[in-house]
């Protein structure tokens, strides 16, 4: 659920755009994030996620007319004040430096730094604190980045694909630490391609597509927005060969799959589909109507937007091949 804005926003994007040459990476983003929210930023490759995080951290400035504010001030000021902890994909760790040294430096530099041992412990680094950072595995490197992001008492944590390379145990520990951060009133914003993670962890999901905010809501709301549900059942007897065609022709049905007597369908109007199923004289057993998973909802929403974009971009009189391609995507 979107938080009712009773408190001042931690993050405020107002018509924020970013153009690189001819590429419109971010197209007028307007969104506010509030204290205590854990927000997942999703989007296909090139959707504008990293650009959004760069603007948020003051690493880039928005195009004229757009504005980004953190805690009522500029991103740079908020970062200088130690209100933001960030874990980015890019940027190597200094070679030859020990884990403890680099984490200790981050704790010292933070205006409200935590004791280094505590930060090492939370990030699961105590056992490898004396190792130099160039001798770490990918997952261990991520844990060092996590420690750097949580070296002090920040109000906002910005994480770009934070769990890439982490094993299951490290991931669990990571998200449990993040939940604790949010429970203390911090805002956690993370970009990810792991949709199960977003589904499990985020209480709000933003979907970017071609630099625009395509959807904003809880994972359940995003799933509902896709408007497609799964209908599954078993038939006692499969009457004859025309059955699959009959099922496909039912109202709302967008896909069918038959494996013996087990039927799986997708429908944009599950109520009408089930009603028509009985009207056909079929008696479905173990009938189940479920929503899509977040991943399937995401694919449905983004490919629908892709189709609409292709149609809107098509000049009058475009040949039919383009139309067919767009329609079958
Ligand atoms: N420095 C740059 N110069 C030119 N174009 C850029 C630059 N940085 C990003 N872009 C373009 O801007 C668009 C958005 O890129 P961005 O990195 O923000 O997307 P993303 O959602 O983070 O993608 P990914 O999931 O692949 O990391 C892309 O088309 C990308 O090619």
From TrEMBL:
Signal peptide boundaries: none
Keyword ATP-binding applies: yes
MF terms in GO: ATP binding; ATP hydrolysis activity
PROSITE patterns from the UniProt entry: ABC_TRANSPORTER_2
One Pfam short name: ABC_tran
Subcellular location: Cell membrane
UniProt membrane topology term: Peripheral membrane protein
Glycosyltransferase keyword on record: no
Disordered: region residues: 308-329
Gene Ontology BP terms: response to antibiotic
Domain ABC transporter, first and last residues per copy: 11-235
InterPro entries named among the record's database cross-references: AAA+_ATPase, ABC_transporter-like_ATP-bd, ABC_transporter_ATP-binding, P-loop_NTPase
Primary localization class, coarse: membrane
Domain of life from the UniProt record: Bacteria
An example Gene Ontology CC term for this record: plasma membrane
Alphabetical UniProt keywords: Antibiotic resistance, ATP-binding, Nucleotide-binding, Transport
Protein name (record): ABC transporter ATP-binding protein
Organism of origin: Streptomyces albus
């Amino acid at each position: 659920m979107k938080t009712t804005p009773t408190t001042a926003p931690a993050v405020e994007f107002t018509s924020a755009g970013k153009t690189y040459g001819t590429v419109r990476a971010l197209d007028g983003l307007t969104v506010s994030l509030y204290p205590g929210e854990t927000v997942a930023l999703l989007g296909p490759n090139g959707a504008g996620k990293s650009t959004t995080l760069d603007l948020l951290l003051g690493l880039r400035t928005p195009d004229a007319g757009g504005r980004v504010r953190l805690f009522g001030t500029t991103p740079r000021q908020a970062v200088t004040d130690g209100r933001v902890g960030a874990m980015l994909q890019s940027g190597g760790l200094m070679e030859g430096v020990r884990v403890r040294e680099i984490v200790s430096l981050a704790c010292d530099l933070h205006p409200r730094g935590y004791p280094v041992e505590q930060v090492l412990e939370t990030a699961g680094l105590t056992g490898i604190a004396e190792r130099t950072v160039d001798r770490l595995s990918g997952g261990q490197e991520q844990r060092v980045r996590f420690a750097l992001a949580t070296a002090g008492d920040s109000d906002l944590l910005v994480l770009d694909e934070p769990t890439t390379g982490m094993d299951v145990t490290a991931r669990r520990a990571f998200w449990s630490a993040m939940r604790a951060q949010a429970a203390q009133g911090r805002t956690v914003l993370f970009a990810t391609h792991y949709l199960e993670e977003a589904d499990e962890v985020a209480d709000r999901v933003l979907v970017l597509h071609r630099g625009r905010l395509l959807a904003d809501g809880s994972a359940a709301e995003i799933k509902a927005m896709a408007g497609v549900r799964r209908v599954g059942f078993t038939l006692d007897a499969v009457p004859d060969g025309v059955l699959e065609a009959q099922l496909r022709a039912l109202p709302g049905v967008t896909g069918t799959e038959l494996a013996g007597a087990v039927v799986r369908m997708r429908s944009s109007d599950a109520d009408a589909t089930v009603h028509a199923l009985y009207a056909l004289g079929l008696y479905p057993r173990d009938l189940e109507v479920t929503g899509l998973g977040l991943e399937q909802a995401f694919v449905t929403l983004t490919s629908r937007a892709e189709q609409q974009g292709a149609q809107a971009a098509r000049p009058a009189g475009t040949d039919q091949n383009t139309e067919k391609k767009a329609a079958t995507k």
